[in-house]
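Structure ticket #2291
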Amino acid sequence: MNLGDLGAEIIKVEKPGSGDDTRSWGPPFVGTESVYFLSVNRNKKSIAINMKKAKGAKIIKELAAVCDVLVENYVPGKLAGMGLGYDDINTVAPHIIYCSITGYGQTGPKFQQAGYDSVAAAVSGLLHITGPEGGEPVRPGVAMTDLATGLYAYGAIMAALLQRHKTGKGMHLDCNLLSSQVACLTYIASNFLNCRTESIRWGTAHASIVPYQAFRTKDGYIVVGAGNNQQFATVCKVLSFPEIIHDPKYKNNQQRVINRKELIGILSARFLEKETSKWLDHFEGSGVPYGPINSMKQVFSDPQVSYLGNTFTWCMFFKIFNYYHRHYYLSNVSYICYLFSENSKQLNFIPSSR
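Resolution: structure written out below.
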């Protein structure tokens, strides 16, 4: 979708009959269209091809010859068995950037296992560190491993296109859920690799920064983070705790981490005294990072979200205009959501060049 946002023409190849599995994921639906499917298929034209048949494989190769990038997410070896692996495509399209997105990569002891977001999140350790302290592992509310892998693939494709501009040659990119999520472990992984420190679940809190978490208020929650001593002093002033600023137990972040339980207990009791809106007013202009935990209704009514334009980008999928061809415009960028196999008839062409 990001490549499409930048102006690329995206052609999504689906299986004849039912199409992409996510077309049936719901409710909710807009008419007969899965809202989940619409949310992740912006800018993608749709064609239906049976790649298991020689005619279908031939069409894929013809498309590859006139396209810049091919993205596939089959189990390694599956496309090669159809004559559509990287070596096969490279023969007819040596310029192609062939990006494979899998669960576990192209080689190794697990490379032929299927991969889903939650499974990769579990194997990579993300679920081990996500959830309430002392509680059960929790899946993030959205498919963060899928999203991270897509963004890594997006960056790799852009870099590969630049490399091809210099060399004239394409390449095979290996992007996978496991590697992407392990890379996203950042300091959690570094803590273990360098100090053999096993991480635990902290809920909304941070293992190495205190205070940096959600606090319950009289009617909701607010997240406050103090990443340095000056910010901590400001938090104490906002909460009317000037005496805590100079307490030796909280004089720096290291001491605050050591004395986390006592400090968080003090702060939590104070936050419960007022409504979220009151605390937001108190922190306004303080220089301390803060914000409420918003519902979806609150997110899309937030003035900053509206100002940045995100609402328009998302809302285009949730209103039925011309149901047979949805076409929207935002900041001179065209956003389209196509019906299943809508563009299949457009394949009757004989391309002369890329």
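Closing remark: The mean pLDDT is 88.
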